Amino acid sequence: MSLATTIELYPGVWQLRIPFTTSRLGYVFSYLIEDSTGDVHLIDPGPAHPDAWAALTGGFESVGHRIDEVRSVLLTHLHHDHAGAATRVRSVSGAVVLLHERDAVDLHRFRPYSQCLERMDGWGVPEDAQGDIRRSVDQAFASTLVRGAADGVIADGEILDIPGRRIEAVWTPGHTRGHLVFADAGQGALFTGDHLLPRITPGIGLGMLGDENPIEEYLWSLARMSRFESFRAHPGHEHSFSGISHRCLQLRDRHERRGEGLRVLAEESPGASLWDLTRALPWSHGWDSVSGHHQLSALVQTEAQRARLIDHRGE
Known about the structure:
The protein is built from ten helices and eleven strands. With 315 residues, the chain is α/β, with parallel strands linked by helices. The protein has a seven-stranded mixed sheet with strand order 1-2-3-4-5-6-7. Strand 8 (167-171) and strand 9 form a beta hairpin. Helix 8 (244-268) packs across helix 10 (293-314) and helix 9 (274-280) crosses helix 10 (293-314).
């Protein structure tokens, strides 16, 4: 019996629900797309875990396809829950694995978060918390895409090589530096990865740190979504949804409110460490519910918000 729940969203386009047991989310969505030749293409194959692999292959079989028919693996971003099985799919099928150039560079550097981990002393993170964060990061990213390379990169605005379909790659940095969403104008479908989720606010800056500010980039990426208002969003987690512009406004407002809260805290406690400021900010289920690499994500976001405040004061 397949462990996946498979739904045909459009003719020749299926959503596969893949178990992701190391996260409270519980699952991740992969998307199987059939082209006009009968070959298939896969958006985000899911994690490299035996149960996930069984669900992925079982999902293929349930719709009359096989994993060795895959011609391209299209990654929204480099995180292990989305990209972890890419190497195995490639080894079975000969498929090319593709993602945005920025995330391809960060894969070569290997360890997502590595630069963030190096900053923890300066952020005032206590030693015991540093240990918990490092262990969590090691566990979470042990199966990231090959610790290595993709076969090629996808440019912003590129039309994917999927015969019989016109699917555009749209660069949406923020969650990672090279995050992509895929827009199928023919179906009115937007495959959003972790850029847009219906209820959860995606973590920002969850990859390597560059010179760019991930909060600023994420807000810019949200603005890019306005032309897809009539589309239906199919994300990497939770469920499909409509009302993309409204969701983008909600997410923008959340980040702006958090930035304002940080400004007030920093003025009230000018000598506070980044760790103390981060712990004092409001989080969805309270700081006590934030642990491991999620704490690192919160710290990265707070640093990015602090940098925005400094930049705005200098204008």
